[in-house]
């Protein structure tokens, strides 16, 4: 049965002709810049059968965080969990295919309230601890939202534009954080569990296919996990992330960060210098120009995400 599920998931993740609904997987960094070696040492690639599908962030030697839809999917209203052994994590390099290290996944847990576009995050346990170096380091979880209209860094190995190629080198760009009231203008269902980041009008950058699960970073802390966007890659609509501050306690309780207060001295923050980005205007215009198509950021916008069922919240998926 697990083999059958694995085959089904492969066709959903990588098939070119699968039926798509209004809820589609769409992740990428559009109009980004190349990262420098060691600039984002917390960044990882989540892989399915050795192929990159999503981004993720190191939060300890044993755990990463990513989006729930990166490790699960739904077929005909039934939820299917990816067998952890099919997944792996690639860390330590800005190059997607070289100079990094690969570790396996032993188990993962999705947020108990994960359904559709809400609660879309997962904690992933590695099969062996990562060895920290200047290129492999954890990032601390934010305990509060970034200030309104502040520059927030996003990054990933997603497509460079809609249906375009994927880069070899990690891409990053800066978006502007919106207040929750403004986020609801674009997404009526949005609440404080979501973080909206708006591209600059003169530089419509953002996430695209394969950027799902990747980080949003402010002041050296993880503030968001890439979830979805309305419209195509590079649209003027905000990219939507799971709000890490909202979920911080759950992430700690379901990883080895429960004693994070006593361990913080051993976890070095990503330096602010590494995350410095060019400032720019974050003009909030064309608010009425909201596309009706909602797409989530994942590899290949091919499989249906509507009619989500409840996830198993009590046990690690295996």
UniProtKB/TrEMBL annotation:
Coiled-coil features, chain-numbered ranges: none
Composition-biased stretches (Polar residues): 267-289
GO molecular function: serine-type endopeptidase activity
One annotated GO biological process: proteolysis
Region annotation Disordered: where it falls in the sequence: 257-318
Compositional bias segments (type: Basic and acidic residues): 257-266, 290-301
Secretion signal span: 1-20
Domain Peptidase S1: 29-256
Pfam families recorded: Trypsin (PF00089)
InterPro entries per the UniProt record, alphabetical: Peptidase_S1 (IPR050430), Peptidase_S1_PA (IPR009003), Peptidase_S1_PA_chymotrypsin (IPR043504), Peptidase_S1A (IPR001314), Trypsin_dom (IPR001254), TRYPSIN_HIS (IPR018114)
Alphabetically ordered keywords of this record: Disulfide bond, Hydrolase, Protease, Serine protease, Signal
Keyword Protease carried by entry: yes
The family this protein is said to belong to: Belongs to the peptidase S1 family.
Known role: Protein with lectin and protease activity involved in the establishment of trypanosome infections in tsetse flies. Binds D-glucosamine and agglutinates bloodstream-form trypanosomes and rabbit red blood cells. Capable of inducing transformation of bloodstream-form trypanosomes into procyclic (midgut) forms in vitro.
Protein name: Lectizyme
Organism of this sequence: Glossina palpalis gambiensis
């Amino acid at each position: 049965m697990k083999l059958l599920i694995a085959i089904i998931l492969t066709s959903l993740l990588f098939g070119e002709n699968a039926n798509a609904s209004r809820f589609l997987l769409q992740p990428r960094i559009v109009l980004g810049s190349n990262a420098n070696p060691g600039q984002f040492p917390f960044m990882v690639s989540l892989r399915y059968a050795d192929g990159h599908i999503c981004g993720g962030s190191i939060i300890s030697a044993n755990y990463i965080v990513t989006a729930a839809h990166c490790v699960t999917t739904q077929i005909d209203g039934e939820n299917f969990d990816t067998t952890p052994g099919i997944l792996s994590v690639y860390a330590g390099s800005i190059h997607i295919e070289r100079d990094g290290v690969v570790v396996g996944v032993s188990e993962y847990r999705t947020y108990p309230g994960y359904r559709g576009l809400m609660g879309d995050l997962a904690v992933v346990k590695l099969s062996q601890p990562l060895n920290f170096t200047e290129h492999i380091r954890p990032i601390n979880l934010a305990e509060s939202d970034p200030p309104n209209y502040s520059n927030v860094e996003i990054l990933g190995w997603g497509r460079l534009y809609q249906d375009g190629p994927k880069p070899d080198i990690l891409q990053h760009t800066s978006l502007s954080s919106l207040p929750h009231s403004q986020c609801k203008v674009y997404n009526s269902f949005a609440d404080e569990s979501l973080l909206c980041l708006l591209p600059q009008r003169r530089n419509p950058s953002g996430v695209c296919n394969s950027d799902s699960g990747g980080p949003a970073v402010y002041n050296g802390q993880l503030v968001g996990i890439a979830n979805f966007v309305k419209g195509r890659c590079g649209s003027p609509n905000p990219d939507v992330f799971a709000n890490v501050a909202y979920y911080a306690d759950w992430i700690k309780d379901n990883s080895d960060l429960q004693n994070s207060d006593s361990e913080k001295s051993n976890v070095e923050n990503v330096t602010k210098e590494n995350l410095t980005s060019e400032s720019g205007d974050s003009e909030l215009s064309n608010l009425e120009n909201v596309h009706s198509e909602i797409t989530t950021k994942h590899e290949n916008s091919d499989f249906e995400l509507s009619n989500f069922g409840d996830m198993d919240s009590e046990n690690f998926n295996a």
